[in-house]
Amino acid sequence: MSQTASAQQRFGEQVLDVEALRIEVRTDAGPGPVLVDDVSLQLRQGEVLGLIGESGAGKSTIGLATMGYSRSGCFITGGKIVFRGKDVREMTRDERQDLRGHGVAYIAQSAAASFNPALTLYEQICEIALRRGLMKEEEAKAEAIRLFKELELPNPEKFGERYPHQVSGGQLQRAMAAMAMITKPSILVFDEPTTALDVTTQVEVLASFRKLIREHRTAALYITHDLAVVAQIADRIMVLRHGKMIEVGDATQILQAPREEYTRRLVAERTVANQNLHQAQSETAKPLLEITNVVASYRSLTRVINDVTLSVERGDTVAVVGESGSGKSTLARVVVGLLPRSSGDVRFQGESLPARLQDRPRDQLRRIQMIYQMPDVALNPRQTLAEIIGRPVEFYFGRSKDQVRERVGELLRHIDLPESFASRRPGELSGGQKQRVCIARALAAEPELIICDEVTSALDQLVGEEILRLLNRLQEELGVAYMFITHDLGTVKRIANKVAVMLKGQLVAYGETDKIFSPPFHPYTELLLSSVPEMRADWLDEVLAKRTRKNA
Amino acid sequence: MAVTDAKVPAKKKAPGIRLFGHKVPFSAQIGFLIIAFNLFLMIFAPFLAPYGEGIVPADLQKWANPSAEHWFGTDAIGRDILSQLLYGARLSIGLSLITTCIAFVVGIITGFSAAILGRWADVALSRFADLILSMPTLIFCLVIITAVMANESAFVAATGISNAFFEGMVIVGVIGFLYAVPVFRLSRAVAMNIVALEYVEAARLRGENIWWVIRKEVLPNAIPPLVAEFGLRFCFTFLLIASLSFLGLGIQPPYQDWGSMVNQNAQVIFLGKPMPLFPAGAIALLTIGVNLVVDWLLSVYSRAHGENA
Asked: In this complex, is the C-beta atom of B17 within 8 Å of any C-beta atom belonging to chain A?
C-alpha cells in the first residue's frame, strides 16, 4: 500500500489505461495467430514502463496499439485503450490522427531507415508541429534547438540544417527523440531505440533519453529485449512472452526477486554470462591459423584492415571484438578469401593460403567453414535440410546417396534436432533451429576452423545462450577451433579463451581472455567493458559519474 | 490446364479459388479461362476445324459472308476463315512460345552469370544489352530479317530444309535474341538481390561452380518475378510476330498466322465485311487473357518480395 502511495506522489495523473488488450492476425484464409492476449497496463505522468520479451512476444504490437494503430493484417479485437479518459478504439479517424504524434509519439528502432534522406533534419523534426498548426516555423525551430541542447547534440544551432546521412547513428536516434518531443506528447513509445547502436554509443543515447523523460515528466513505454538496458530507465517492468503477460512489477523487484520461472531465467542468463564455458585444451605447439601483418581494403584506398597479426590454435576460441566499422567482419572475409588481402600472409596449418577464394583448392576450402549472423538468409529457403546439410558431404567427400542420408541424420542428432526434420525447409524452423542447421552445414565439411560471424546477435537471449552451449559442446567433442566475430562482450566472456580487440582496422589488444579483461586495460578495452549494461538500476548513474570525473 | 489446378479445393476452408496458396481474383480466373480456351483450340485444331488447312472448298466462294457453312465467312481465295484461324493459332501461339522460351533460356543464363561473376563480365554483357536496346525492336527486326531472307534460296538449296521451316527459324531466332535482352536485364536485377544473400556466399565458399549456383541457389528463388515476366514477354512476342506477318515479313503463304490473316483480309473492311476482325479479335483476346493473369501474378509477388526489379 505504501508503495502505491509513494508512486502516486512521484508520478502524476494516469494518462493511459490499457485493459485486456487482444490483437490478432486475420488473413483472407481466416483468423491467424493471437499476437497479444489479455494484456493490461497503466501509465501515469512521468512514469516509465519497460516492456521486455523475446521477439514475437508482442511488445512492439502493444506499443503501436497505444496509438490505435496495428500493422497490416493485424487487428485489435478486444479490450480498451483509454488515453486521458477517451477510448482510442472508439475515436473517429480525425481524433486518432490528432492523437498520433501529439498525444502519443513513437521512436523507432532504426533511425537510419525512418528519416527521409532527401530532407534536412529541421524539416522532418518540425513537420508535425507545423502541420498541426501548433507552432509557427520560428517557434518550432527554437523548440528544436532547445531539444537538441537537452539531448546534448553537438552544435545545436546548426544541427537541424544537416541531412540524415551527415550525422552519426547515435545522433540520428536522438534527433528522432527530438522529433517525437517537439509537440510535448503525453506518452513516448520507445521501440528498441538503442538496439542498433554500438555499446559505447548506447550509453550516451540512453542517458540523454532518460534525462529527457525526467525533465519533461513524460510517460513512456520502453520496449526492449535487453533486461539490463531497461533496468536503467524503467520504473516498472512488464515481462511478456508469446503475447501474454508473464509478470509485472517494480524494476527492482523484477531484477532482484522475480516471481515467475521465465523471468528468473531471463535474469539468470545475464548473471551466468560471466562464467566461461571454454574447456577445450588449446595446443600451443602448432598454430592452426596464423594471420601476419595483413592489410586489406575495399576498392577505395582506405585500409579496412591495417597490419593485423594474430593466431588461432587447435581447440582455441578466439573472439574478435569491436564496434561496427572496426573491421572485424572484414578480417573474417580476408581469412576465407572473399576479400583478397593486399599484403601480409594468412597461413593455415603452416601452409600459405592463396589470397583469392577461387585459387584455393577444395580441401583448403573444406577446412575453414563459416556460420553467419542471420540464419534467415544463410539458408536457401527452397532447399530441404537434407539438401542443405547433405551437400557439403556429397561435395567434399563424394559419398553415395545412402551414406549422405546417414550422415545428415547423424549431424541432425549432433545439433539436437530430430532426424525427421531432414525433409523440412528452413521456413518451417524457428530462428534458433535455423542457426543449428547452419552449424550442422559447417560441421558436415568436417572443418578444423569455424568462423562464427555474430552468430548469436540475431537471436533472443535464451536461444543465443543455447547456441553458445552447443558450439562449446561440439568443440569439446570434435576439437574444432572457433574464430568468433562479435560485438557482444557477454558472449566473449562466456566462451572465448583468447580475445582480440579491434579498433578502426587495427588490433589494439590481443591475448588470453582473463588478461585482457583484467587491469591494466588498454583504454579502449576499458571503455568497451564499462559500456556493457549491467543488471543494476544504478549502473548508468555510476558509469556517467565515472566518466564525468575522468573528463574533469 | 491451369484452370484445372485452380479448381483443386484448397486445404484451408476459405472462399474463392486458390492457386499456390494465393486467392485467385475474378479477373485472373477469366485470364486463365481465355488461355485454356486458346490452348484447347490450338491443340485440337485438326478435329475442330470444319475444313483442312489451306484447303479451298469445292463450293468456291470468295468473300462469302458468315453463314451456317462458313461461320466466319471466307477469304479472297475462298478459304474458310474459321479453319484458317484454328490452324493459325498453332503458328501464332506455337512460334511465340518457342521464341519466348529461347529468350528466357538465353536471358536467364546470361543475366544470372552477369550477377554472379560481376566485374568485367557484368560490364561487357550490360553494355552489349544497352547497345541492342538503343534500337527500336521492330525496325531492328525488319532489318535483320530482310538481310537474312536475302540469302534464303542459297541456304535452303545448300541444306535441303523447306522454305517455310527456314523462315520460321529466322523469326524465332531473331526475336528470341532481341527479347533475350529485356529478360537479361530482369534476371540480372533479380539475381543481384539473391546473390547478395548469405546462402549464395556459403555456396561460393564451399567452392561450387557457377552452373550449380545458378541452378540450385539462384533460379529457385527467382522464379516468381520470372514467371510474371514470361507471361508479359509472351504477349510481346505474339504481337511482334503478328506485326511482322502483317507487314509481310513473317509467316509466308500458303501458311497463315493471325497477323498475316489480318493483313490479307484487311481490304474488305472497306466493303463492310467483318473478316479481318476475327483474327484481330483473337489476337486481342489472348493478349488480354495473358495480361490478366500476369497482372495478378505481379501483384501477388510484389507484395511478397517487395520488388520486381
From this structure: no
